[in-house]
User: Fold this.
Amino acid sequence: MHFDRHYSAGTQWGKPLVDSTFTLALVTGQSVTDISQHVMANLGWDRVRLPNPVFEGDTLYSQSGVLSTRESASRSDVGIITVRTIGFNQDGVIVITFERTLMVYRKGHGPLFSFVEPVWDERSRKAAGLEA
Assistant:
């Protein structure tokens, strides 16, 4: 179904599907900057559902929302959150939903964030058209 065009042409979809584990990885990756970029650990994925297929050429979007929060029973420097993420295609059709549980640092307990500034060397300035 995922790599054999001849075989998949005979299925109800008529063409190859994108592998569902790739869809899970992609949509999870999209949620990193707003959900889990600076967490201590992912604890697990639950209720992964794939209600509609993804095809080559589809554009995927995602949205996440917090379902619950609680203190960690074993660590005072972290809390536990559960989020639901949905992934949908360019037509708004939902292609994946899942819940993910994460261990997050409590305020003031995580590592410091570093801030990196770009370095405009001669080559970069020239490429950007900032030098003649």
User: Anything to note?
Assistant: The longest strand covers residues 94-105.
